[in-house]
Design brief:
With 236 residues, the chain is an alpha/beta fold. The chain has helices at residues 3-13, 20-32, 51-58, 73-82, 118-130, 147-152, 181-190, and strands spanning 40-44, 65-70, 87-90, 103-109, 132-144, 157-161, 165-170, 174-179, 193-205, 221-229. The structure holds S-adenosylmethionine.
Length: 236
Amino acid sequence: MTISDTYQSTQNTQKQYSVPVTLLQLVRKALGLMTVKPSKLLEVGSSSYSVLSQIVKSELDGGANLICIDNDSSAIDLGSRLNPETKFVALNALNIQEIDEVFDLILDSHMIHCLESISQVKNYLLRSNSVLSQNGIMIIETMIANNEFFVENKSWIVESFPGKFSIVERAGVGRRVVFEQLFLEDLVKECGFEISYLYFVNGNRFVFDGNRDNAVSSDPDAIQLVLKKKLNDILV
Ligand SMILES: C[S@@+](CC[C@H](N)C(=O)[O-])C[C@H]1O[C@@H](n2cnc3c(N)ncnc32)[C@H](O)[C@@H]1O
């Protein structure tokens, strides 16, 4: 098998939710960027499975408070039953401030692109920033479009703002925001964050079709961001 065959086979066998191992590695990396261990954690759009609950057990020796939110109450009910030690709350991410807590670490794995418009994305980022502690971090994994995505999937595009983002709809997946990388970078900065770490997950793609399990090269790429709250006082 040539290197190119191996690469292609990796591309084709990555599944949409084969992410958690990579995501755990990302959270561990982000912990290494923090000056203190986080004691309050929030997982947004967790569904019934919490990635951070593993971090609380393995990296934080159980000594942290974790809240998971999702706007799907059946996922939240299931999550509470499967993980009785974790607090699951049915809540729209756009109302994140209703929890009335300040968090040291916020994880958003694949939720942000489920929001319905860029103004919702912006509101959500601003609100997340406002509930983040001074030295806290926010970790986001989401989709980034590539050229092939636009060429191959024209019929899925509901609305497109070249160089910025597209709203895409696909049977079996629903409506999603697909960002372009520089636009997403600018957006998070506009919402009060600075980027500590940005990574394209090699060979990891979102399967953008409910009728197949395997990724193809025209599926959106996965991007991972570790964000810090921008501090206004810069010492010179
Ligand atoms: C693609 S799934 C990701 C699930 C999980 N975090 C993962 O990475 O496998 C997106 C999740 O976000 C939730 N979600 C979508 N819009 C939301 C919103 N406005 N507020 C809270 N949760 C939302 C969905 O119910 C769903 O559970």
